[in-house]
Structure to design on (886 residues):
């Protein structure tokens, strides 16, 4: 890496070398049985330079191909975007817990055992369920050096357990699932099993969905599947620079109901998206995005920050083949003070959204969504009476989050990247076919 | 390379082993708004080994190609830890072949400056339309050389060249943001993405016009889909469920997807096939070395076939179709679609429209997803149909359906088959896999439409 940087620095004004490697070893179950063991060992190098005020970029996963990398970066740089960034020099970084040696040492046999217990736990109550499960561990390493003296590296473990179950009766297909991931080893399967069993139980009875505008409760998974993504797109510095963010010009103003708060916090201990610095070497820090309904920050990487005349928020994320771009790391939705059961008992007739299908196909930027309900339930007189299907919901995230009736008092992790409570809102538009 | 692969394969205790080595180079040019955001040339090299032992699989992928033999041993050892039953793979003829890429106008021979100039021009075309807030224009091409060998003696080298262009325009009025897009792709023809200046302008104009368009009320409508959206519809509504890996271990699903069962009217014929030359999902051999085919999935409304890997074909006692595909060396092959289409009928679009008093004409695609039984797909643009004619523009719609009713409600198929080459399909984390979808105009009664 040093050699590559030195050679690149000779032909460019500034240079940065980014190296990543990752070893993934998942154990996969299909149709309730162990199906395969995999081992993925991948690594690669990316070179970014600034020359005559322009950005050049190239990458490879053939780490011996230094000459090719330099030749290609020099080929692209005359056409590159105008560089608005200054690479960071030596920095001091926070301590962020993202490594657990126990993840590295867990054996295949133990992982197989976990997967089997997970499936057995679910089938002990619903023997007809067909499960696919994945128990995976990974070790990722990253190092970044640049011509201004920045040299940062870290290693991170990840351990994930997920299961998807399908239950088919006549022509009805019920899909359930839950997963969890963090940097730490966690062998406690009970919360996953009980969550899946609850979905199966509530899904037994199919009922006709209410139609028209009805009150709605989003489960933490529901919050993740629809409410958060349009906001993250609007909060992205890149969207803002393009003039496509509906939040433009509203910094410091109240944009959502007071009960709603949202942070991006890459320093969260052991969360999957946590890290001590971003993918440009800028130190991590917790970043409030929406504080009690008030817009407090947008996400920037170095380039977009330079364009907007702001400072990077340490939000750069990159895959090997592309330039860094602003992105969230660990999304935290603030807790409120309403217990889930109190939300339920407040609803005369309404629905609960747990998972949606096709939510990303709508006009995300404007906050509009339309989606099929993949898993959702009907509430009648404060009680869940059954599962709804062949039902579409539509609405606008900004309108929904300005019409808050309550924010749950207990936030839950959705995978390893987002933690959110239940959210109860005034109305959503429901269409159903019989 | 052949010798390297053959030597690494020798002398392991497994039922089946395959090795895949991949070399690739790709170019990407991306604009956000009028500004060039990313221009990069990426090269890649990697490989994988897949091994089967008593029905269990081991898989290893890597960038470091040294000690290939050790990687084979690792995959074999993993398979041996899993396997307790019996490896079942449908027998196929052992192929030794070198397949050159199908290239009409090779993007690899076009200078980077020329590719950038073309992308620039499309950007200018978009921005010639007043009212555009932002846009995204992206060009990509890639060349892949794959070396494949297995323990049965097969050795296949295949090279492919892919070109894609994606243009989208965003118009905004206060908090109201509307987006339109165009995606095109080709198997080896740079020419297919040239000369689209008018189309780019049109995309921008449509985005601006959408701001003025009304939303329609959600509910059930008669809809007519244009060939692009109808192609997405058949891919999502039916295609995924014809992938045998969803079915082969699931007795209940096998009962539902029984060959001979009726899924639609006698006017409905659905085909998938990589053997049709010149389309984006076309190839000679799949990622297991099985020759591509041309498979009827639905013939005259009746389920007659499905898509297979060697394992699913063996386990279901059906013929292989050559549909096992891996998007890259990072993944094992899984059952995928290739070029999926509805065969044309005899009616014209006017015939389809004539019988609709009040309905929706939905064209172009924005996206699509399926959960098997239920699916959604959304249009790029939509119009109201009034008294047999296409009338005013309405906001893009999302259509949703159910496998068991929507195909029965498909009551008319026009005669104007065309293919959309811009699609990328996702499954099991492998996205975007080059596929094409095709269809003539089709009409669906009682289709659930998400509204305002």
């Amino acid at each position: 890496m040093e050699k590559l940087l030195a050679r690149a620095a000779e032909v460019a004004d500034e240079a940065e070398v980014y190296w990543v490697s990752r070893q993934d070893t998942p154990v996969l179950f299909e149709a309730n049985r162990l199906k395969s063991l995999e081992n993925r060992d991948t690594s690669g190098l990316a070179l970014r330079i600034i020359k005559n005020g322009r950005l050049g970029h190239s990458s490879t996963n053939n780490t011996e191909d230094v000459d090719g990398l330099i030749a290609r970066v020099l080929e692209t740089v005359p056409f590159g975007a105008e560089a608005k960034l200054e690479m960071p020099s030596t920095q001091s970084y926070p301590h962020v817990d993202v490594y657990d040696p126990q993840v590295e040492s867990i054996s295949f046999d133990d992982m197989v055992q976990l997967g089997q217990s997970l499936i057995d736990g679910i089938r002990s109550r619903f023997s007809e369920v067909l499960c696919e499960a994945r128990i995976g561990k990974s070790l990722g390493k990253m190092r970044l050096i640049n011509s201004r003296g920045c040299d940062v590296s870290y290693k991170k473990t990840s351990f994930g357990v997920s299961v998807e179950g399908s239950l088919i009766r006549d022509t009805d297909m019920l899909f359930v699932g839950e997963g969890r991931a963090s940097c730490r080893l966690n062998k406690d399967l009970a919360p996953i099993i009980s969550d899946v069993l609850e979905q199966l139980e509530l899904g037994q009875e199919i009922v006709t969905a209410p139609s028209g505008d009805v009150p709605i409760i989003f489960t933490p998974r529901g919050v993740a599947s629809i409410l958060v993504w349009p906001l993250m797109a609007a909060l992205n510095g890149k969207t803002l620079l393009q003039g496509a963010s509906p939040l433009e010009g509203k910094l410091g103003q109240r944009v959502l109901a007071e009960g709603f708060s949202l942070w991006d916090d890459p320093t969260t201990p052991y969360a999957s998206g946590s890290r001590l610095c971003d993918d440009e070497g800028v130190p991590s820090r917790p970043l409030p995005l929406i504080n009690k309904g008030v817009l407090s920050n947008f996400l920037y990487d170095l380039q977009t920050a330079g364009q907007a005349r702001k400072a990077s928020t340490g939000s750069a994320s990159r895959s090997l083949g592309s330039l860094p771009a602003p992105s969230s790391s660990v999304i935290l939705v603030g807790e409120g003070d309403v217990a889930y059961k109190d939300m339920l008992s407040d609803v005369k007739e309404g629905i609960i959204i747990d998972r949606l299908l096709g939510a990303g196909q709508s006009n995300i930027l404007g906050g509009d969504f339309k989606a099929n309900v993949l898993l959702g339930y009907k509430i009648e007189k404060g009680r869940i009476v059954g599962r709804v299907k062949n039902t579409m919901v539509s609405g606008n995230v900004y309108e929904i989050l300005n019409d808050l009736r309550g924010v749950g008092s207990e936030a839950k992790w959705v995978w390893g990247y987002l933690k959110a409570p239940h959210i109860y809102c005034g109305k959503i538009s429901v269409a159903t076919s019989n | 390379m052949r010798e390297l692969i053959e030597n690494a394969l020798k002398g392991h205790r497994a039922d089946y082993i395959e090795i895949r080595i991949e070399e690739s180079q790709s170019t990407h040019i991306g604009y956000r708004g009028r500004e060039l955001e990313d221009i990069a040339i990426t090269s890649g090299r990697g490989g994988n080994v897949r091994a089967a032992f008593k029905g269990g699989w081991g898989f290893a992928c890597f960038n470091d190609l040294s000690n290939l033999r050790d990687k084979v041993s690792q995959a074999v050892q993993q398979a041996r830890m899993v396997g307790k039953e019996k490896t079942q793979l449908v027998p196929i003829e052992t192929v030794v072949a070198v397949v050159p890429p199908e290239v009409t106008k090779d993007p690899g021979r076009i200078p980077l400056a020329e590719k950038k100039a073309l992308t620039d021009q499309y950007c200018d075309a978009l921005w010639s339309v007043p009212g555009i807030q932002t846009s995204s224009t992206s060009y990509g091409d890639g060349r892949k050389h794959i070396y494949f060998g297995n323990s049965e003696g097969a050795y296949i080298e295949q090279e492919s060249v892919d070109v894609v262009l994606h243009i989208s325009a965003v118009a905004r009025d206060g908090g109201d943001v509307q987006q339109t897009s165009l995606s095109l792709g080709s198997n080896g023809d740079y020419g297919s993405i040239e000369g689209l200046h008018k189309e780019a302008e049109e995309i921008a104009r449509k985005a601006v016009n959408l701001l003025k368009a009304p939303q329609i009320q959600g509910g059930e409508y008669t809809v007519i889909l244009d060939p692009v959206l109808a192609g997405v519809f058949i891919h999502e509504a039916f295609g995924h469920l014809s992938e045998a890996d969803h079915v082969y271990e699931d007795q209940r699903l096998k009962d539902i997807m029984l060959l001979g069962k009726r899924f639609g009217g006698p006017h409905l014929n659905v085909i998938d096939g990589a053997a049709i030359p010149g389309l984006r999902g076309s190839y000679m051999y799949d990622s297991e070395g099985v020759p591509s085919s041309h498979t009827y999935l639905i013939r005259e409304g009746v389920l007659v076939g499905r898509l297979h890997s060697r394992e699913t074909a063996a386990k279901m006692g059906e013929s292989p179709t050559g549909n096992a595909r891996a998007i890259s060396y990072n993944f094992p092959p899984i059952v995928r679609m290739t070029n999926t289409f509805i065969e044309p009928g005899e009616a014209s679009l006017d015939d389809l429209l004539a019988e609709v008093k009040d309905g929706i004409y939905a064209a172009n695609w924005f996206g699509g997803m399926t959960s098997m039984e239920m699916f959604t797909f959304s249009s790029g643009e939509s119009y109201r149909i009034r008294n047999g004619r296409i009338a005013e523009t309405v906001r893009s719609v999302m259509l949703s359906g159910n496998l068991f009713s929507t195909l029965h409600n498909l009551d008319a198929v026009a005669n104007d088959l065309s293919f959309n080459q811009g699609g990328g399909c996702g499954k099991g984390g492998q996205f975007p896999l080059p596929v094409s979808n095709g269809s003539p105009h089709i009409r669906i009664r009682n289709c659930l439409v998400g509204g305002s």
Summary: The mean pLDDT of chain B is 94. Residues 93 and 160 of chain B are 23 Å apart (CA to CA). Chain B touches chain A through 81 residues (CB under 8 Å). Residues 219-450 of chain B form one domain.
